[in-house]
Amino acid sequence: MTSSNGHCRPEPGVVAIVPALNEQLTVGMTVAALLRAGAESVIVVDDGSIDSTGHVAADAGAVVVRRERTGGKGVAIVDGVSLVRARTGLGCVVFADADLGDSAEEMAKVIAPVAGGLADMSIAGFPAARGSGFGLAVGLARAGVRCLCGVNLIWPLSGQRALRADPLFAMMDAGFRPERGFGFEVGLTVDWLRSGYSLVEVPTLMGHRATGRTIAGFAHRGRQFAAVARALAMRFWGERPAL
Fold it and tell me: Is the whole model's pTM more than 0.85, yes or no?
């Protein structure tokens, strides 16, 4: 839904959940962009930040939930989902990272298939980032989803997603418990597909902070690879992750 000034009007029943840890430089822009993209409201789960993340998010128009101790992305998102479950008329839940900045407005493209009833979940695709790494984690995630679900995906690790609210709540009622950190996305993808829900990928022009080919960047991707491997292994052996 687009207004006369080119911005999306809020879609009824669309709420965005943004887990955030020390993202004061970008979270305000991200919140504002999600509201422009069609989110009716934005919930920022401040996952124990030691900077002004929560204040900046609130000033930008978000509802802020504060965790005193850092629990990880999966824990923060579950906190956000738990907060919105009591809402009536909620049709779509959006997950978005806090470092998207203005590019989060591209989430309008991701919301559209779910809001229009064309898919149960849509995943945002990102342009290829130069110098971001060797693709080992995403390659593992692709192979894992293909092996466990028979589905070929391009962006199985993208954290930018729109989901129909009812299936998400039903999965949580059935015992779905996502991983805390970097295994969150691939675990959710496998569980979603195994539950029989549909999924589409949507190319976008979004961008976020790249880790780069530095020591810190390689360490980050090493932790991500290990977390993805653990999430896939647990689902291969039929175990449930514990929060």
Answer: yes
